[in-house]
Amino acid sequence: MAAFWSVKRSDTTSHVGSGALALAVVGLAVVPQVWNASVVQQLTTLLILVMLAAMWNALSGYAGLVSVGQQSFIGFGAYTTIFLTQQGVAPYLAVALAPLAAAGLAICLAPLVLRLRGGQFAVGTWVVAEAIALMVMLDHGLGGGTGVSLRGLNVLPSHIRRAYTYWLALAFVVLLLGLLFLLLRSRSGAALQAIRDDEHAAASVGVRTAPLKLAIYVLAGFGCGAAGALTLANTLFIQPRSIFGVHWSAFMIFMVLVGGLGTFEGPIVGAVVFFAIQNWFSDGGPWYLIGLGAVAVAFALFLPRGLWSVVSQGRQIQLLPVGYHLSRRPTP
Amino acid sequence: MTWANAIIQGVLLGGLYALFACGLSLMFGVMRIINLAHGDLAVLGAFVVWLIATQGHVSPFIATVACLPLMILIGYGLQRTLLSRSLRSGELTPLLTTFGLAIVVQNALLQVFSADVRGLGGLSGLLAVDGWRLGDQLAVPYLGVTILAVAVAVLGGLQLVLQRTAFGREMRATAQDPEAAALVGIPASQVYARATAIAVATAAIAGAFLAIHSTFDPSSGPTQLIFAFEAVVIGGLGSLWGTLAGGVTLGVAQTIGAVIDPQYSILAGHLVFLIVLAGPRGWLVFSRRPRAWQPSGR
């Protein structure tokens, strides 16, 4: 009796997964009405982490670009917000516009940094981040090296402000994951996953890798810019040394490696894990960071597809149907 | 006169950057990986030298020589354990593991030695402070000349080893094609381990001279990694003498930037790096598939 195979986009698990994801978004949206302002602020941090992890994963998990310099866009997004509010733009509008400026920066930087491969790209983007940080520090209008506050938001009562920031963060997470989902579902998505598996092989069967890498780089710039602008809206004060700090890259790498490099769901898992670790252990000082580094190394060497691969165990569990898979069906 | 002085100081500073860049260039040339922990390993070397010099009451220069066997062992062990495994699992894994290692080393140093800023200049005697006076505003410090001489000696020695010895031939062969080298009996893992050992040892020398020349603390590593990388790229990948030229260019850019305004010093170095990257040379270097290493100094 011959077995019949069919290629399917989605199945029961992905229907359940997508439904659960939609419910989770609705659930997250009502959080500010239920919980107090400090929980809302914490959850805003978590949403920012999800954004960062998803963007870093898009870069290195799909386009094969390991960046140690995404803090360029985090800082640029935050400082663009400051700059726009100084020009009289309403703060929340500025937060929403800043990611576009970060995407513009990515378009400008792309011809320069996308020449670089592998480790050269990693350190090259880092140098760019340092150069931008130094230029910001030279600008006294932006507060120089001492930092600057976001004015105009503290006129709002704090629980209202935090709720607005939270909703904006949630909207950006949905937008970014949605864009990534659409990109992965499209024809380019198959190409991106081919690049992820083997760039040379993908190129040899006719995948044009350069425009796809550019698209991902600009999307990641946009997303990290949003994360930076929202970090500013969440904390109201930034210093160039910390918003342009390389620790952001360390956090992104940790989240993605732990969650699952090159999977759609992994970065979300990684962000939640990192958020929990950050809340429990961040008082540990150097030991906390030693632990983070060692765990990241261990995951890179021994579990390169991260925790999500443990959860899915080779079965086709998908929260969102981004790929295709084979399923066996009985003979008709 | 200030300009002449800036250029002299920049050339001498370039010697230090070339020393930092040497190991990075070697590892990239032989294994095609950028070791993101390079700067932190150099700072680890500086701390070892500092321990030997202060606990053993010896000159930092003797302590530097004394720390080399330990650093060679560390480099050898690093390749044998962490790097060899990560090299097997694809192009991106070595980057991720060395970045993780950098965080571990940096914070372990912070835990053990605290965030205090240290220096070895005070222990180094007249060599660290004195110099030849060539007029009112022009002085050539002994230390700078020493560092430049050591950089030339290290780079030249490495060049000689690569060109003239059997070991150097094995290294070049493995850099060009590890599988073909293995077919004629050169195990890549051996060669890689030796190259890493040499790279970590030169990083330690650079770290020691950083400590004598200025100050260091556990968080100094990333900046040194960036400078080393800039020197390698400005000088052109895959050439050791190019690395020296790159280090000198970077040093001169920084000191000239500092003459205009001390705040511009490091930024000027970054800008020169970005200009090189944007220029036709950068395009030539990076648009091709990585070439086999050319240690003949082209």
From TrEMBL, chain A:
Q: Per the UniProt entry, what species is this protein from, by scientific name?
A: Rhizocola hellebori
Q: What membrane topology does this protein have?
A: Multi-pass membrane protein
The name on file for this protein is Branched-chain amino acid ABC transporter permease
Bilayer-crossing residues are: 46-68, 89-114, 120-142, 163-184, 214-238, 250-281, 287-308
Task: Kindly list the places in or outside the cell where this protein is found, as annotated in its UniProt entry.
Answer: Cell membrane
One Pfam family here: BPD_transp_2
Keyword vocabulary terms for this entry: Cell membrane, Membrane, Transmembrane, Transmembrane helix
Sorted alphabetically, the Gene Ontology cellular component annotations on this record are: plasma membrane
Organism ancestry: Bacteria, Bacillati, Actinomycetota, Actinomycetes, Micromonosporales
> Does this entry carry the keyword Membrane?
yes
Major subcellular site: membrane
- Gene Ontology molecular function: branched-chain amino acid transmembrane transporter activity
Superkingdom assignment: Bacteria
From TrEMBL, chain B:
Q: Which organism is it from?
A: Rhizocola hellebori
Q: What is its main location?
A: membrane
**One BP annotation, GO:** amino acid transport
Family classification: Belongs to the binding-protein-dependent transport system permease family. LivHM subfamily.
Indicate how the chain sits in the lipid bilayer.
Multi-pass membrane protein
Q: Which InterPro entries match?
A: ABC_transp_permease, BCAA_transport_permease
**Gene Ontology cellular-component terms listed:** plasma membrane
Provide the alphabetized UniProt keywords: Amino-acid transport, Cell membrane, Membrane, Transmembrane, Transmembrane helix, Transport
Q: Which residues cross the membrane?
A: 6-26, 33-52, 58-78, 90-113, 139-162, 191-213, 225-252, 264-286
Q: Key word Transmembrane present in the record?
A: yes
List, alphabetically, the Pfam families matched. BPD_transp_2
Q: Per its record, how is this protein called by name?
A: Branched-chain amino acid ABC transporter permease
Please give the superkingdom of this protein's source: Bacteria
PANTHER family reported for this sequence: AMINO ACID ABC TRANSPORTER PERMEASE PROTEIN, BRANCHED-CHAIN AMINO ACID TRANSPORT SYSTEM PERMEASE PROTEIN LIVH
